[in-house]
Each structure stands twice: as C-alpha cells, then as structure tokens.
Design goal:
The chain is α+β, with helices and mostly antiparallel strands and 228 residues long. The chain folds into two domains: 9-78, Winged helix-like DNA-binding domain superfamily/Winged helix DNA-binding domain (Arc Repressor Mutant, subunit A); 85-227, no CATH class. It contains nine helices and eleven strands. It has helices at 15-22, 30-37, 41-53, 71-78, 87-106, 145-161, 169-185, 196-201, 217-227, and strands at 9-10, 13-14, 27-28, 57-59, 67-69, 85-86, 111-119, 128-129, 132-140, 191-195, 210-214. The strands form four sheets. A four-stranded mixed beta sheet has the order 10-9-7-11. A hairpin with a 7-residue loop joins strand 4 (57-59) and strand 5.
Length: 228
C-alpha cells in the first residue's frame, strides 16, 4: 500500500485502523481484531484472510490460530504515507542503530545482538530510500539452558510488573527477543528490522549489496556463501 490510506479498507475495516492494531504486536488472531475494532469474529476473519493474501501476516508454525507479521507486514505498520528518506539522513539512522547495539549488549537483556547488517537501497548508495533495511542477529545470553530460561522468565516478569499485558502466549514467549528489537528500533520511523536468517536466505541478484555495521564480517560472508 502506497500513499494516503484514509480511504482504503482491509476486510471492510479502515486500513489505518488495521495498521494501528498490528503496530507493536508480534502475533495476531481473529480475536485481536474482534476486540480492538469492536467487530464480529466473522468480520475479523475477513481481515485475517486479506492480510494473509497481501503477505502481511502468515500462520504461526506452532500455534495454528495465531498469525505472525511478515517483513512486508512490518513495513505496512511503519511507513504508510511516509516520504522517502534522503541518503544522508538514512545513513545517520543506520549509524544511530549501530550505536544502540552497544547499549543493548551492555544491558541486562536475555538476548544480545551478534550481528547488524545494512542492506537494500541504502547499501546500494541510492539518493533516497523507502526505508533503512537492517538484518539483526540475536543470540542467547547464556549457553546453559536453565540459566537462559531463568533470564527470559525474569524479563517477562519485569515487563508485567511494569504494566505490560500480553495478548497471547506467543507474545509472552517471544517478549525477551522482541524487547531487544524494540530498543534497537527506538521508534525510528523508516527503520525496518529483519531476522538475520531472512537476510541470509533472501534471493540475491547483481544489485545485492550489504554492509556489516556490527559483527564478524568473515563469518557473515561465509554464511552468505553457504546460503547462496
């Protein structure tokens, strides 16, 4: 979807309302839209079906009634009606994100960032970009499974004590990873974060370019060779 969305609809509901429901969520289901938009379950199912057809969400592998946002869905929540970003400003956004990696890795999160990679139109040096694409590698803080589980449970508890409410078990389960991504994004409009695996497996052509902002460059180059 490009341009203004005030007059557009998804499943019969204003697109801007659907976008607002998706923002800040890891997963959604029909009940999410039914409650948030005050519509029937049938109407909510129409929204789910249309979002799936647009590749904005996809069924969760482990929870059949849940749907997780795709990269396209994340972009839908971020850049509707947003003007293109000048190259110099986009580079500043990427540099600021790289600086936040150091903050994150010093913090007491259950996950740290092992890699941050710039790719897409900005890496190709285009004068303006639609968004700043960054691939993010996360790794567990602890090699010991028991310690890691305790750390993740503690992060969920801290979030709940601070007033956060999880709409379903999937959001609760993935919160320790999601809070790291939230810190990295820092509400920066136009900053589009993607899992490292998606970056490694994406189709690549002669225009493919990337720049490692944080992480082991030789390891990442080797991973790319293995997935090409």
């Amino acid at each position: 979807m490009k341009g203004q969305i005030q007059d557009q609809k998804i499943g019969g509901v204003p697109a801007i309302q659907v976008r607002n429901v998706l923002r800040g969520r890891l997963t959604v289901n029909a009940g999410t839209f039914s409650r948030s938009c005050k519509i029937t379950t049938e109407q909510a199912s129409h929204i789910i079906n249309e979002l799936v057809s647009k590749n904005f969400i996809k069924p969760d592998e482990h929870y059949p009634e849940e749907f997780e946002l795709t990269n396209a869905g994340q972009r839908f929540t971020q850049k509707l009606a947003m003007p293109r970003i000048p190259n110099n400003k986009a580079n500043q956004m990427a540099e600021a994100a790289a600086e936040r990696v150091e903050e994150i890795n010093r913090a007491n999160y259950a996950y740290s960032i092992s890699a941050l990679i710039l790719y897409g139109s900005l890496a190709r040096g285009e004068d303006t970009v639609g968004d700043v694409d960054l691939a993010v590698g996360l790794e567990k803080r602890f090699s010991d499974e028991k310690e890691q589980n305790q750390a993740e449970s503690q992060r969920v508890q801290i979030a709940e004590e601070a007033g956060r409410r999880f709409s379903n078990i999937v959001e609760r389960l993935f919160w320790p990873q999601y809070e790291v991504m939230r810190h990295l994004k820092a509400r920066a409009r136009g900053l589009s974060l993607h899992p490292l695996d998606d970056f490694l497996r994406m189709p690549k052509n002669s225009k493919f370019r990337y720049r490692v902002l944080f992480g082991d460059e030789s390891k990442i180059a080797n991973q790319l060779r293995q997935t090409t």
